[in-house]
Design goal:
Length: 818
């Protein structure tokens, strides 16, 4: 492509930081002609230029581990390919622990990453820490972890290498071009308007870094992120500082230390950061520093660092730096096509790990554009996981201040955000408060996770062991199993699908047969063409041309997007998000029938009201929908109640339940019950790289429908080849009642690691930790084969015996629900 200003492009990438440069490079590498990268000032001038350049491969999930490992490998390849140095040095990285909780976390993270099989994490003694990082004072240290192949690179040089590589492959990378507007017609990108002219294009990638949210907003695209002040200081050069010093992270003291041109660079992730750019990011910001709040934010971290690395107290300081970096509401970067505008992709919000993520995010964004889908399970980063309220200035800024600190905080199980709370409240929130609920947050919804007894403060006390609410939640679980429990499930996403062609549309999208009589709920999956699971939900036929679809709280925009994009141009079918129109109460347990029958004035016997039946009913004055279904594996009904009638309906239920042993139960109890039943959790146990056959729910696939479902060919092929028999979702139950599963614990068959848990919780009825995880094997994974092996689960480096089963350990035949 010539260097004159282009009139059209296959894709326009907005933002010439390291992320944009990587996207351009990867698109060009995929053979895209006429890729255009536009940078408003100079490449790398926003955030990239002042990044510390740490390259660490230890990650919280396998996809991220694979991507970071790719990024690192690419740094070597880029140098060879472009002749441009990346400054990459493989010096290793060291994390240290001086508290029992951090030590437990480091060991769990090491075990998890070793199970991913991407990087090797070794635990080391304080003496080994000293040998690796001689400048450290090891007093009070319990131990650490060391990753030999981690390192550091030069952010500007890496950006230049991407640009050079992209140009060599034909991309046009321009500096000094400002994008004023993304052009949209009929819900699709058609190009960009710049200060130098218009470029027509079907694809735009917003890699605008800290500008991305404001740029997105101009096109109605929601990209929640906000800039925060990030600090580091650099010492004078010192003879004891050698270039091969590993990167040191002391998370409890909020600090990282790396060698930087013969000096030490000391960076801070203080617990509560300061948001910056609240009035908007200045347009002319370029290679600028911020005045910051050095005394309050940086100095306390430096003082602690001087205790751990005493030479920092003696050496001179060359600079104290503050610069802006963008943080997202959940500390996860954003990637993927926006749900609002077709062809509008996002790759932004790198949460201070942009250099180590750059290769990976560029690759997945480019492949997503090229193939029309993500190349791996990236639901945790998919821009569709965001909600409009998260993009408000107030929320984005408040949450970013917490996100920065959370990077180095202990990642305790069940940890809840402290900021951005009370964004979305259940219609019966006040009743939950009155009953002493302790809330957690999903998709902004405040949800009762557990209930404290009267006189006990409903507040988490975090640890990696049994937390303060363990026994309370156990008794809620027991109520669901033995008497009756009420769960507020109002946060679940609900969509009304209506119209003459609604049945045909849903038949095509749903694996299950949904052309059923208008009194039935159907459990189904939505699959992609590859047979991977895009959604796990229920569909209730309400009338000939009307269906109520219910899925989890976190997936509203993903599901809506999937539904709407699969309605043909000529099909008459509308989709409405009715989440806020209904409260949902799950009344679950053996006493539910006796409790509800008089209240609903309905015959709820098995004959009159079998499992899967769903009809209209009445609860007091409220017209409601009554559905026999259960996510806890017990006799039970879900009641869908108009929002404005939720409180009186709840009060009637509560009163009626008193003589039946009714207890309010929270989401932690729900999860404990569902995992005992081996029910799936979308995003953890199943996602777009897993098929229903592998997950053990092949029954959701109706292969003989008049209208085949999306992914049916892939499922038919998998059935024929029996390849799913080599990857199966297995339930593990520990024999020792003490250790606790959370997620990602390695699965050992004999001495060999064959997978890891996708979800885990304590099964209070089974009396032990229960986990689900995929076992991949050369042999067919059958019940007999499982029974013939020795299974252990690695919990923080200790191995515990477990039973393994394809069927649920609790009520395998499902008799209690039916
Ligand atoms: N930008 C600093 C990276 C922090 C870390 O990797 O720990």
């Amino acid at each position: 492509m010539s260097e004159s200003f282009p009139s059209k492009a296959s894709a326009v990438i907005i933002g010439g930081g390291i992320t944009g440069a990587s996207v351009a490079y990867h698109l060009a590498k995929l053979g895209w002609q006429d890729v255009v990268l536009l940078e408003r000032k100079q490449f790398a001038c926003g955030t990239t230029w002042h990044a510390a350049g740490l390259i660490g491969t230890v990650r919280a999930n396998e996809s991220h581990a694979r991507l970071t490992e790719y990024s690192m490998r690419l740094l070597h390849e880029l140098e060879v390919e472009t002749g441009q140095s990346t400054g990459f040095r493989q010096v290793g990285s060291l994390n240290i622990a001086h508290s029992a909780a951090r030590w437990e976390e480091l060991r769990r993270v090491a075990a998890m990453n070793n199970a991913f099989g991407v990087t090797r994490v070794d635990t080391v003694t304080p003496e080994e820490v000293k040998a690796l990082f001689p400048l450290i004072d090891t007093s009070g240290l319990i131990g650490g972890t060391f990753v030999e192949h981690d390192g550091k690179g030069n952010p500007i040089e890496i950006t230049n290498a991407f640009i050079k590589g992209a140009r060599q492959k034909g991309a046009l990378c321009l500096e000094g071009v400002r994008v004023d507007e993304v052009l949209i017609e009929g819900g699709r990108v058609t190009g960009v308007q710049t200060d130098q002219g218009t470029i027509a294009s079907d694809f735009v990638v917003n890699c605008g870094g800290m500008w991305a949210r404001e740029l997105g907003r101009k096109s109605g695209v929601n990209i929640p992120l906000h800039a925060c002040e990030h600090y580091y200081a650099v010492t004078e050069k010192h003879e004891l500082v050698t270039p091969d010093l590993p990167v040191l992270r002391d998370h409890d003291k909020c600090v990282y230390i790396k060698e930087d041109a013969g000096a030490l660079l000391v960076g801070a992730f203080e617990k509560r950061a300061v948001a910056w750019g609240q009035q908007g990011i200045p347009e002319d910001f370029s290679f600028d520093e911020l005045p910051g709040h050095m005394e309050e934010q940086l100095m306390p971290v430096l003082e602690d660092a001087m205790i751990r690395v005493p030479m920092l107290g003696d050496v001179g300081w060359r600079s104290f730096f503050c610069g802006p970096e963008s943080f997202t509401p959940d500390d996860q970067f954003h990637v993927g096509e926006s749900p609002e505008v077709r062809g509008y992709f996002v790759a932004a919000g790198l949460n201070s790990v942009g250099i180590q993520s750059s290769g990976g995010i560029g690759k997945v964004c480019a492949e997503w554009m090229h193939n029309g889908h993500s190349p791996m399970d990236l639901w945790g980063n998919d821009i569709r996981r965001m909600y409009p309220f998260m993009g408000t200035q107030a929320f984005a800024a408040e949450r970013a201040e917490e996100s920065l600190g959370l990077l180095y905080e202990k990642h305790y199980p069940f940890r809840q955000f402290e900021t951005g709370r009370n964004a979305r409240l259940s219609p019966v929130h006040q009743r939950m408060l009155d009953h002493n609920a302790c809330f957690g947050q999903v998709a902004g919804w405040e949800r009762a996770n557990w209930f404290a007894p009267a006189g006990v403060e409903p507040k988490y006390e975090y640890s990696f062991g049994r937390q303060n609410w363990f026994d309370y939640s156990a008794s809620e679980h027991a109520a669901a199993r033995e008497t009756v429990a009420l769960f507020d499930q109002s946060s679940f996403s609900k969509y009304l699908v209506q119209g003459r062609d609604a049945t045909n549309v849903l038949q095509r999208i749903c694996t299950a047969q949904i052309d059923v009589s208008a009194d039935k709920i159907v459990y189904t999956h939505w699959l992609n063409e590859r047979g991977g699971i895009e959604a796990d939900l229920t569909v209730t036929r309400q009338s000939e041309n009307e269906y109520l679809v219910i899925s989890g709280a976190a997936t509203t925009h993903k599901d809506l997007n999937w539904l709407r994009r699969h309605i043909g141009k000529d099909e008459f079918c509308t989709v409405t998000d009715v989440t806020s129109q209904y409260a949902v109460f799950g009344v679950m347990g053996p006493n539910s029938r006796a409790m509800l029958e008089p209240l609903l004035r309905m015959d709820l016997s098995n004959e009159a009201f079998p499992f899967g039946r769903s009809v209209e009913g009445e609860l007091g004055y409220a017209p409601i929908r009554v559905t026999r279904v259960s996510f806890v594996g017990e006799l039970g009904w879900e009641l869908c109640v108009p929002t404005e009638m939720a409180i009186p309906s709840f009060d009637r239920l509560w009163e009626a339940g008193q003589s039946h042993g009714l207890k309010l139960a929270g989401l932690h109890a729900l999860d404990s019950c569902r995992i005992e039943k081996k029910f799936l959790h979308f995003g953890h146990d199943v996602a777009d790289e897993d098929t229903p056959l592998e997950a053990g729910v092949g029954f959701v696939c109706a292969m003989d429908k008049r209208i085949p479902f999306i992914g049916q060919d892939a499922i038919a092929r998998q059935k024929d080849s029996r390849s799913h028999m080599h990857k199966r979702l297995v339930q593990f139950v520990l024999k020792d009642p003490e250790p606790l599963f959370y997620h990602h614990e390695p699965i050992l068959m004999g001495d060999e690691c064959v997978g890891y848990l996708t979800s885990g919780n304590y099964g209070h009825t089974l009396g032990a930790s229960v986990g689900l995880g995929y076992v991949k094997s050369k042999e067919e994974v059958t019940a007999d084969w499982l029974a013939a092996q020795r299974w252990q689960i690695d919990v923080g480096g200790k191995f515990y015996e477990a039973s393994a089963s394809l069927r649920a350990a609790y009520d395998p035949a499902g008799l209690r629900m039916r």
